[in-house]
Design a protein that fits this description.
- The chain has nine helices and twelve strands.
- The chain is an alpha/beta fold.
- The strands form three sheets. Strands 5, 6, 7, 8, 9, 10, 11 and 12 form an eight-stranded mixed β-sheet that branches. Strands 1-2 form a two-stranded antiparallel sheet. A two-stranded antiparallel sheet has the order 3-4.
- Helix 1 crosses helix 7, helix 5 (about 120-130) packs parallel to helix 6 and helix 8 (about 230-245) runs parallel beside helix 9 (about 265-275).
- It is globular, with a radius of gyration of 20 Å.
- The chain starts with 7 loop residues before the first helix and ends with a strand.
């Protein structure tokens, strides 16, 4: 777990790490926690010997993996801890389309863990497919609600140069990573700590969100979606967003839903809000079966499956 006294020195050290990884053409696609655990089991606890081992697979590694000055800086700021004669990073770094994103190391057991994984990649593709055209009159105002690593907002800034991007999260560690990742990507963002859209003001042209959607016994921020089999937070954010969109504004929401007896209760819950706002929308299953291992838990006893879904709504 990262030390509680994160500050400018920590930020500078992590930015230096991201710069070094970029110079070394680092790339790492982060998998689900279950797949990650299986890969480590196949490695039979052998220490890492590469940047991908150290900052992707979260393996312990020898000093030779990093330049001495960078290793010392990361040690001083708590980004890296010593384990006997080896070292272990407290952060992971994932890649997408040339950008690097720092987030929590594996395993993500802490309540404030920040995760980047397969859902993030699907969310980014949804944004790429549905981001509206830039306005000729004023820059787009975009909110990434529950931003985590900041990937969604950073993608929006990449797609629409000049967009005014607000990154929101209730988790201070998430905003720490998101700010560093945005700076490393060279995009300007505004930070809005707090509970979803209540932490922001004004209207938006685009609201992006990839809310947590599972029932998590530990109530970890990146997984726990609240009551009704994890969909409560997604409904809350979706309903709030529809009220905060400018005319012609767009909600791009990626989440997951437990399908019970063939029924998708998330879109059923959202339809009254969509109707009240007069929105046109598209809704589709992006992946019909994710996190199947969750079905072994008693809370999901009545569920058929958990589907990844994408809702794109446009306000008249």
């Amino acid at each position: 777990m990262l030390a509680a006294d994160r500050g400018p020195a920590f930020d500078a050290a992590l930015k230096a790490l991201l710069q070094h990884l970029r110079e070394q053409a680092y790339a790492f696609i982060t998998v689900t926690p279950l797949s990650h655990a299986r890969v480590l089991a196949n490695r039979r606890s052998h220490p890492g010997n590469s940047l991908r081992d150290a900052f992707g697979w979260s393996l312990s590694f020898p000093a030779a993996v990093l330049p001495p000055e960078l290793l010392a800086l990361l040690m001083q700021t708590g980004v890296i801890l010593r384990e006997g004669g080896l070292y272990r990073s407290q952060v992971r770094v994932s890649s997408f389309d040339g950008d690097l994103f720092a987030h929590s190391s594996f395993p993500t057991t802490a309540r404030d863990a920040v995760f980047f994984g397969p859902d993030t990649y699907r969310f980014l593709q949804l944004i790429r497919d549905h981001m509206p055209a830039a306005s000729p009159d004023a820059p787009l105002r975009v909110a990434d609600v529950g931003c985590g690593s900041g990937a969604g907002g950073i993608m929006a800034a990449r797609l629409r140069v000049g967009a005014q991007v607000v990154l929101n999260d209730i988790n201070p560690l998430a905003l720490c990573y998101a700010g560093i990742n945005a700076a490393a990507a060279g995009v300007e963002v505004e930070m809005a700590p707090g509970d979803a859209l209540s932490a922001t003001s004004g209207e938006f042209d685009v609201v992006l969100s990839n809310p947590p959607y599972l029932e998590d016994d530990a109530a970890r921020a990146y997984r726990h979606g609240g009551g009704d089999l994890g969909r409560a937070l997604s409904v809350k954010i979706g309903a709030q967003a529809l009220q905060r969109l400018r005319p012609g504004g767009r909600l791009i929401l990626y989440t997951g839903v437990a399908i019970v007896d063939g029924i998708d209760h998330f879109i059923r819950d959202m339809e009254p809000f969509l109707g009240q706002a007069g929105c046109t929308y598209t809704y589709a299953e992006i992946d019909p079966d994710v996190f199947g291992e969750e079905l072994e838990r008693p809370v999901y006893r009545q569920a058929d499956r958990i589907a990844a879904v994408g809702l794109v709504a446009v306000k008249p």
